[in-house]
Amino acid sequence: MAGHSKWANIKHRKAAQDTKRAKVWTRLIREVTIAAREGGGDSDANPRLRAAVLTARSANMPNDTVEKAIKRGTGDMDGVIYEEINYEGYGPAGVAILVETQTDNKNRTAAEVRHVFTKYNGKLGSTGCVSYLFTRKGMILLTSEEGPVDVETAMDAAIENGAEDVEENDGSVVVTTAMEDLHSVSTALTEAGLPVSNAELIMEASTEVEITDEKEAAGVLRLVGMLDDLDDVSSVSANFDIDAELMAKLDS
Questions:
Q1: HSE (CB half, 13 Å, CA atoms) of 241?
Q2: What is the gyration radius of the CA atoms in the chain, in angstroms?
Q3: Domain that holds residue 34
Q4: Mind listing the pLDDT tens digit for each residue in 81-99?
């Protein structure tokens, strides 16, 4: 999701996340634990863990909770072992959908994901059918209740520290980075006095399906939303682009 409606799509997703803060924390704890298990507990030497910790702190997760998640990942504390499994498929209008899960019961998760795809007019595909369309990126959101973000300062600080893209919309700024640069760019923006409201890893699509039909747009959002509501799902990525005006109409 990018282009002229990127901010509209981000606002829609963040509004949904804000209504289920407890679930967001559960997902972040799993991500920190898995990142530590796979790459070690030193965030300086583990880019995935560094990004996960940054995202957790952006969500106001207590440091003690983050540290416990790291210890469970490194084996210094007992905890549930989660397995990462991805599912791929298509939604209305041919939208490609990538579902990332972290589960302790893959049979349960597979059944739940398949059920949602079937019920909400999607089609579950084979491994690799859409994943090639997505690349792991860092996304930083700059917003302020006090007024528009200083775009020129944001652009200078972001680009000087390796950001790949900077977009402005309605006084807010979205910065895209390589996965390994998320922490350094976010830190540089903060040190420049800019209001970093969120920093996280996303899957960015290389191509997008522009949806102009209200029924198709509603169908895609419903499918993506129902997948995202599943307890074992850590993220849902889809390559659709909905015009900001249509998104506002759907949200009303």
A1: 13
A2: 18
A3: 3-74
A4: 889 999 999 999 999 999 9
H runs (alpha helix) in 161-210: 182-191
Note the pLDDT tens digit of each residue in 55-89.
Answer: 888 888 999 999 999 999 999 988 888 899 999 99
Q: Give the domain CATH number at 62.
A: 1.10.10.200
Count other Cβ atoms within 10 Å, centred on residue 116: 24
Going through 50-195 in order, the beta strands assigned E by DSSP cover: 83-90, 96-103, 123-124, 134-142, 165-169, 172-178
Question: Does residue 105 fall inside a structural domain?
Answer: no
Specify the 3-state DSSP secondary structure of 99. strand
Instruction: Return the bridge partners of 237, or none.
Output: 98
In Å, what is the CA distance from 248 to each residue of 12, 18, 211, 225, 245?
9, 18, 14, 16, 5
- Amino acid in the structure at residue 147: G
208 part of a folded domain: no
State the burial class of residue 251 (Cβ atoms within 10 Å of its Cβ: 0-12, 13-18, 19+): exposed
Q: In the 8-state DSSP scheme, what is residue 217?
A: H
Query: Is 210 contained in some domain?
Result: no
For tokens 């807010």, the residue is 172
